[in-house]
Amino acid sequence: MNFDYLVDQIPDYRRFFYVDEFDRRTQELAEKFPRVVKVYEIGKSRNAHPIKVIKIGNGSRNALMFGCPHPNEPIGAMMLDFLCEKLVEDEQLRSHFDYTWYLIKVIDPDGTKLNEGWFSNPQSIKSYAGNFYRPPGYRQVEWTFPVDYKTLHFHEPLPETQTLMKIMEEEKPVFMYSLHNAGFGGVYYYISDDSPELYEGFHTIPHRFKVPLALGEPEVPYLKMLSKAIYKLSPITEEYDYLEKHAKVDPAQIIRAGASSDEYAKRVADTYSLVCEVPYYYDPRIEDISETQMTRKEARLISWESSTKQYEFVREIFEICENYSNEKSPFYEVLKNYVEIMPEHLNAEKNWIETDPQLQRKATVAEVFDNTCVTQFYQSLMLGMLKRFVNEILENYEDEKLYEVKKKVDGQFDRKIDYLEKNLNYRAIPIKDLVAIQLLAGLKTAEYVQSL
Asked: Which segments of the protein form a coiled coil according to its record (predicted)?
């Protein structure tokens, strides 16, 4: 089926919806189409926010989709909001699939609310970084599924994770779409298995909206590339093996989290999973594969040295502020975890850089750009959380030392943003286009899985 007709129906969104808006729109949809859609509560978040499942259709097989598995990633929630409406309104679309759909717009409502400060101004990197929140791994819905592997034993799934486990165990989805997005760069995909039938579509869909593929460095060194910008989903066991090879301590001490959603779904239901990472911001260099005079090793060392300096700054500030903070603060959690585990991550990365012969080749422009500018972009997000952490403490303490710390952190954050504004040739990608990319990739994959 050609799903292109749906693209013209996607609204020209200017901002992201807030969690309460998603909830309200879900309820309105259920009231408007009571014969087609069923909405029910499957659990509650850690802060007791109801997590609602939207059930549509009555196919013989089940599909599961969920948004905001990382709470700073609302594009997928917007896509699901649109898809829900189309599935209930468009009988031709609904009948094309032999699925019963289980859709959750926001699986982490608590964390998503902590990002709402930038939802009305997503065009600005400064707004995004300054209002950014992402929890440590052991508080991420995506990475808190049970696992036992060598010394890694994790059996503390979050309440939100438990809701997904329940659906996976009871409904046995044959297709699952965990909706993620990147902050900066191009489009890239993760899938369960080598599926060449999907690759041409995956490559052409983003270009229809003038969004590039991500052709720079992969997220982590150990990924298996299936085609350009398409990777095999990587279980936590592969991160463990990488750290076992390159780190000097037990990998379980660094990981401190569990398996991913696709690992658990594969385990209990033999599910085919898709992740389509789309970026908020774009710079043309992210798709430039022309060769530079710099080796990949030299480029990676630039990134590593910058990350090391960032770590030292964050650690210094955190050690000053730690005794003032409420340990239940979400910013305390993420910063404490970062301070504790980052040294061994950096050590493992340095060992990999020094020993991997593949890094001896000349780097592309995209790879150099990833290791210089994009690295700095992601550092701005940690500085944004550090800034929010200090401001949170100052709400309860009036201390001259803390005001000096605030001045130092604000200065570091502003310098980082200034660097990015001067060195990036970026544009914010329209939300409509990003929703369209995730929508088309998801429907094409659902169609493919249905044909297996």
From this structure: none
